[in-house]
Amino acid sequence: MSRVAVIGAGAVGCYYGARLAEAGHEVHFLMRRDFEAVRRDGLHILSKDGDVHLARPDVAREPSAIGPADWVLCALKATAVEEARALVAPCVGPSTRILVLMNGLGLEDRFAAWFGAERVFGGLAFTCINRGEPGVVHHIDYGPVTIGHLLDDPGEVDIALALWAGAKVETVRAPSLLAGRWTKLCWNIPFNGLAVTAGGITTDRVLADPALRASVTALILEVAAAGNADLAAHGGTARLDGEATARNMVAATEAMAAYRPSTMIDFVEGRPMEVAAIFEEPLRRASALGVATPLLSMLTGQMRSLDARARVS
Amino acid sequence: MSRVAVIGAGAVGCYYGARLAEAGHEVHFLMRRDFEAVRRDGLHILSKDGDVHLARPDVAREPSAIGPADWVLCALKATAVEEARALVAPCVGPSTRILVLMNGLGLEDRFAAWFGAERVFGGLAFTCINRGEPGVVHHIDYGPVTIGHLLDDPGEVDIALALWAGAKVETVRAPSLLAGRWTKLCWNIPFNGLAVTAGGITTDRVLADPALRASVTALILEVAAAGNADLAAHGGTARLDGEATARNMVAATEAMAAYRPSTMIDFVEGRPMEVAAIFEEPLRRASALGVATPLLSMLTGQMRSLDARARVS
Question: How far apart are CA B133 and CA B110, in angstroms?
Answer without folding.
Answer: 32
